[in-house]
Design a protein that fits this description.
By secondary structure, this protein is an alpha+beta fold. The chain has 3 domains: 3-65, 2-Layer Sandwich (Uridine Diphospho-n-acetylenolpyruvylglucosamine Reductase, domain 2); 70-224, Uridine Diphospho-n-acetylenolpyruvylglucosamine Reductase, domain 3 (2-Layer Sandwich); 232-239 and 272-335, Alpha-Beta Complex (Uridine Diphospho-n-acetylenolpyruvylglucosamine Reductase, domain 1), CATH 3.90.78.10. The chain has 7 helices and 20 strands. The protein has helices at 29-36, 90-99, 195-201, 210-224, 245-254, 272-278, 307-325; strands spanning 3-7, 19-26, 43-46, 52-53, 58-65, 70-75, 79-85, 124-125, 128-129, 134-141, 147-151, 172-182, 232-236, 242-244, 261-264, 267-269, 285-286, 289-291, 298-301, 334-335. The strands form 6 sheets. A 5-stranded antiparallel β-sheet has the order 6-7-12-10-11, with no helix packed on it. It has a 4-stranded mixed β-sheet with strand order 1-2-5-3. Strands 13-19-18-17 form a 4-stranded antiparallel β-sheet, covered by helices on one side. α3 (195-201) packs across α4. The longest helix has 19 residues, at 307-325. The radius of gyration is 20 Å and the shape is globular. The two termini are 25 Å apart. The relative contact order is 0.13. The protein binds flavin-adenine dinucleotide. The site of flavin-adenine dinucleotide (FAD) has 33 residues, from β3, β8, β12 and β13.
Length: 336
């Protein structure tokens, strides 16, 4: 059932060549439960490996979640409930929903990773977050090996966060996710980033549909973000920091150009990419790794770098940002 000393290079988007002491791919729930019944003392749950920085060989068991299946659970006049198994590729699932003419996930096209991991950090892009269409998920409790259902409220979704990344970290494996998607009268989000200009570039001047939007998002992402198949990376390495109005005022006095977005009455979000670029890291290379030349938030492995190299660089960036701006940059990527 288990393979030994398996290279995880094909299983992580940074392309880190570390080994798993034991490795198994779970194709269905029964397999997954019987693997867990062996009581592995150390366990790493692996989806698409696109939000992981592996800094050393993994002791214990790596379970690759490979559960498949998509089904329509319920349909009424306005919405359709769709359930997808955790091992479905996220982007393929988004394309499936678009093929069914269902709206809600079009702005989240081309995000790497699997469906089951999407709730862990409440994936988001172009003004939409997973939580906007999430109904519930089924998750295997690692202590009881029973399936529990988590509603949207249970997950306590926040910016790149949920209970699965905080209070219940390492305690559950999400096995399936259910979404409520619109049949028609889709709620379109077109004001974020370069969506408007990309739509115009594609010849869509008014009344875009969900297909136009996903096409625009895919086009923007392909032009801006490095493809992990060609260049090892994990997308945004850091979260955008959120600061109080008081702290922002001080920063603004010192750095009048500092960009910001209002989060709530007393909170503002600052783009981490701007902080990193201003600190002089954008495009910097350190031998076979560095900061992407077009995306200051993306750390890259040009080939042969180790997880420790990338971790060192991320710490240097954090320290520099703290010294210059007094801001603690929090990692979005899971470091192991
Ligand atoms: C080029 C690029 C662009 C990206 N753009 C975005 C973006 O726009 N927005 C965004 O939000 N993210 C983005 N990401 C990050 C990444 O795609 C998401 O975080 C994605 O959800 C990770 O899924 P995964 O299956 O690859 O997770 P993995 O890397 O396999 O796992 C991530 C964490 O979740 C745990 N985990 C895995 N599967 C499960 C499960 N079934 N149940 C419970 N825990 C589990 C793992 O143990 C690990 O701690 C990007 C990444 C890349 C490489």
């Amino acid at each position: 059932m288990f393979q030994k000393q398996v290279s995880l290079k094909p299983y992580n988007s940074f392309g880190m060549d570390v080994k798993a002491e034991r490795f198994v791919s779970a194709e269905n729930l029964e397999d997954l439960v019987s693997v867990l019944e062996t009581n592995p003392s150390k366990l790493l749950v692996l989806g698409g490996g696109s939000n992981l920085l592996l800094t050393k060989d993994v002791k214990g068991l790596v379970v690759h979640i490979n559960l498949k299946g998509i089904e329509i659970c319920e349909r009424n006049n306005e919405t359709t409930l769709v359930k997808a198994a955790a091992g479905e590729n996220w982007h393929d699932f988004v394309l499936w929903t678009l093929n069914q003419n269902l709206g809600g996930l079009e702005n989240l096209a081309l995000i790497p990773g699997n469906v089951g991991t999407a709730p862990v950090q409440n994936i988001g892009a172009y003004g939409v977050e997973l939580k906007d269409s999430f109904v519930n998920c089924e998750a295997l409790n690692l202590k009881t090996l029973e399936i529990e259902t988590f509603s949207n409220a249970d997950c306590k979704f926040d910016y790149r966060n949920s209970v699965f990344k905080s209070q219940y970290k390492g305690q559950y494996i999400i096995t399936a996710v259910c979404f409520a998607l619109t049949n028609s009268n889709h709620i379109l989000k077109t004001s974020y980033g370069a969506i408007q200009s990309e739509l115009k570039k594609n010849g869509v001047h008014n009344n875009p549909n969900i297909h136009d939007i996903s096409k625009a998002v895919i086009g923007i992402r392909q032009s801006k973000l490095p493809d992990p198949k060609k260049l090892g990376n994990s997308g945004s390495f850091f979260k955008n920091p959120v600061v109080t109005k008081k702290i922002f005022k001080k920063l603004h006095n010192q750095f009048p150009d500092i960009p910001h977005y209002t989060v709530s009455e007393n909170k503002l979000k600052i783009p981490a990419a701007w902080l990193i670029e201003t600190a002089g890291f954008k495009g910097k290379t350190f031998g076979n790794y560095g900061v992407h030349k077009h995306q200051a938030l993306v750390l890259v492995n040009y080939g042969g770098a180790s997880g420790k190299d990338l971790l060192r660089l991320s710490k240097l960036i954090q320290k520099t940002i703290k010294t210059i701006f007094g801001i603690e940059l929090e990692s979005e990527v899971n470091v192991l």
